[in-house]
Amino acid sequence: MGIDNMGKGRLEAFSDGVIAIIITIMVLELKVPESHALASLAPLAPVLLSYVLSFVYVGIYWNNHHHMLSTVHRISGRVLWANLHLLFWLSLLPFTTAWMGENHFAASPTAVYGVVLLMAAVAYWLLQRTLIVADGRDAVLATAIGSDWKGKVSPLLYLTGIALTFWRPWAGQAMYVLAALLWLIPDRRIERASNS
Question: CA–CA distance from 114 to each of 4, 12, 45, 81, 137 (Å)?
């Protein structure tokens, strides 16, 4: 079986496995306090908040990746590489999450976290384009994403967040949270296009 005829099941299973490992690594970075008092959790708040934000992002990517792949019929070698490119950037989230949380949202770790989010967004866009090329001009995915305003706004929010981080790290964080909230709002484009 040639790569152009390869089923998407293997690609999806591999991606799901990598994403599960990313979440596992992130949760293993959470250190249990030595004290049983609730007050001992207070110093861990930045680490916990970083974890929650990254967990939400990984969940968003997993959900959208699943929906996107549900529309395609052909997987090419370029799709495999584009998918690995996305997984590479997502695999850096545990490191940047821990660095940012352990340093209480300091400017440099927060900016690097934003760069990883930006590059993951770019990689996701490249994967979308590659899937559309592999499936042809009449691909369901091309119809579903339409003008893709979320895909255009998100990188701008990340860039703004990265820049704001060096002025006020909390402002950069606010941009990252805003981008996540934008994607948490249910997006029915792919479901509508698949059912039409």
Answer: 35, 26, 20, 23, 33
d(CA 28, CA 32): 10
Cβ-contact 58, 90 below 8 angstroms: yes
| DSSP collapsed to 3 states, 64-133 | HHHHHHCCCCCCCHHHHHHHHHHHHHHHCHHHHHHHHHHCCCCHHHHHHHHHHHHHHHHHHHHHHHHHHH
pTM equals: 0.90
- From residue 96, alpha-carbon distances to 54, 113, 138, 154 in Å are 9, 5, 39, 19
pLDDT tens, residue by residue, 58-84: 999 999 999 899 888 889 999 999 999
Residues in the chain: 196
Q: 11 in helix, strand or coil?
A: helix
For residue 124, give both structure tokens.
Answer: 């996701």
Distance CA 103, CA 107 (A): 9
State how far the Cα of 56 lies from the Cα of 88, in Å rounded to an integer: 18
153-179, pLDDT tens digit by residue?
999 999 999 999 999 999 999 999 999
